[in-house]
Structures are given as structure tokens and as C-alpha cells.
Amino acid sequence: MQGVFTGFATIGVVIAVGALLAHLKIVDLTAQRVLSQVAFFVGSPALMIVTLSRADVRNVLSANLVATTIGVIVPVVIYVLCARFLWRRSLGDGTIGALSAAYVNAGNLGIPVASYVLGDAALVAPTLLLQLIVLQPIALALLDTDALGRSPSFVQLVSRPFQNPLTVASLIGVVLSLTGWTLPDFVGNPLELLGGVAVPAMLIAYGIALRLGPGLGAAGSVAELATTSLLKLIVQPLVAYAVARFALGVEGHALLAIVVTAALPTAQNIFVHATRYDRATVLARDTILITTMGSVPVILLIAALLG
Question: Which of 34, 243, 247, 292 could make an S-S bridge to 265, C-beta 3.0–4.6 Å?
Fold first, then answer.
């Protein structure tokens, strides 16, 4: 259990640093946007290359992946239906809302939780790869499409994901993993150093936004915020459990790993994407805050019931 608290405490401290810097007027919302841009265009792509190149992508072909995929699809579909028919959200806002409801913090929180609670950091790899290779490129393509302000041509639609640095970096990482190639030190070392910028930049930018941005629930719909938070904290882990346990027959530690991973909070990089495209920024911020706080008791309960 100490690993759970350590992971959350680490994130909380770095976010608090960003909020303190904003409170002391050392930085402002301009700095928040700059940090988000640096994380999006530099730090995150470097981190994706380093992380994926070291992962065994063959682990994706497992029961973990099946349960994880369905666990993502169900909350996304529920949110999209609500966004379309209840709240009339645009494509960009709806995409960020869907990510807020299902995109887990598999990197900077999932890895320490997998290491200390589950005993193996590799257990989070299927979720990490699914999000980076499938979910994130699709979402970024939709956000890019929305940003055009018009329906793109087929060529634009197909090529646009590959113009995004995160997608390109993810594909490079997968190729390196599959081929076993190792980057030379003069390339790998700078990438690793730049990748180290991503998470703290995201978290500090998030802390600045918490201190200087609109208050909690100011996104315009408390019902929408409640929906994204409940889908992430309750629906996603329940669906992953049901699929893994009853459809695939997974038991024991493997089942615990699947459910704990599904219960991780919304990832901070969703806020970076929201800021980058100026879509549903407050909804992403608030969902991250609520799910980050709420996931602690949820994960502890899961560990107590299935551990």
C-alpha cells in the first residue's frame, strides 16, 4: 500500500509546486501554456520513444489487452452518447471529454503503482501501449480535424495523425521495440534527458492552472464533470473486472493487475492536449483533480478485495 501513497504523494507535491509558483506570482497562465507546449512538442515525444523502445510490445497480445480495451470502449461510448444527445458538445470538446473519462495515468503514476503494489512495472505495459498506439493517435486525429474547422480530405485525414509529434514518436518507439534496435548514446541520452522534462512540466502547468484558472465545476455542466469522473473511477474498473473475470477467466494476481490499472486516474497529459487544442480545458482539469483524489480509496478497496 505504501507504493500507492508514494505515487500519489509525488504527483501531488509537484502539482503543489506549480500552484505555489502561481500563488507567489512567479509564473502566470502564459507560463502554464509554455510549459504545456514544451511537454507536448518536446518532452512527451522523447518520453514516448524511450518508454516504448524498452517495452515488450508482444505483451499487448494478452487477456490484459482485451479487458483493458473493452474497459476503455464502454465509458467512451457512454460519454460520447451523453455529449452528443444531452450536452451537444463539439467534436473537439467531446474528444477531450471522452479521453477524460477513459484515458488512464499509466505512465508517471501507473508505473510506480505497478512496481510497488503489483510487484512488476511491466504489468502496466499493455495499457500504456494501447493508449499510445491506438487511443491517442485516434483522439489527436479527431482534435486536428476539429481544429481545421472543416471536413478534411481523405489524404488529410489519413496523414494528419502522422504529422503529430506524439504519434510519430510512439511509432518510432514501437519499431525500436519490435526490431530490438538500440539508439546510439549520442541520440538516446539526449532523448532520455528531454523525456524527463515531460512529466514535471505537465504537473507544474496543471498546478498553475488549478491556482489561476476557473474554480472547480466552472466548465459549465456539473453533470458532465460528474459523468466523466464516475465513468473513470467506477465504470471502467468494473467493466475491466467483469470482462477479465467472467469472459476470460482471469484470476488472482493477473486479475488484480487489470482492475488496478483500469482504476488509475485520468492522465495529466489529457490536460496538455486540452490546452494545446483549446478544447474542454476546464473539464479535463477538473476530471483529473477529482479522479486523482478519488482513485486512492478506489485502488485501496480493489487491493483489499482482490489482493
Answer: 292
SS (H, E, C) 32-58: HHHHHHHHHHHHHHHHHHHHHHCCCHH
Instruction: Tell me the Cα Rg of the chain.
Output: 18
Taking only the tens place, the pLDDT of each residue in 247-303 is 999 999 889 999 999 999 999 889 989 998 999 999 999 999 899 889 989 998 998
Beta-carbon contacts of residue 241 (< 8 Å; ≥ 6 apart): 255, 258, 259, 262
- Angle formed by the axes of helices 63-85 and 252-262, to 10°? 30
Q: At what angle do helices 281-306 and 222-230 cross, to 10 degrees?
A: 30
CA 90 to chain centre: 21
Which sequence spans correspond to the domains of the chain?
Answer: 2-306
Coil, helix or strand at residue 184: coil
Phi then psi for residue 268, to 5 deg, are: -65, -25
The conformation of residue 214, written as its DSSP 8-state character, comes to P
Q: Are the C-beta atoms of 125 and 52 separated by less than 8 Å?
A: no
pLDDT in tens, 39-51: 889 998 999 899 8
User: What is the CATH code for 2-306?
Assistant: 1.20.1530.20
Please give the single-letter amino acid code of residue 301: L
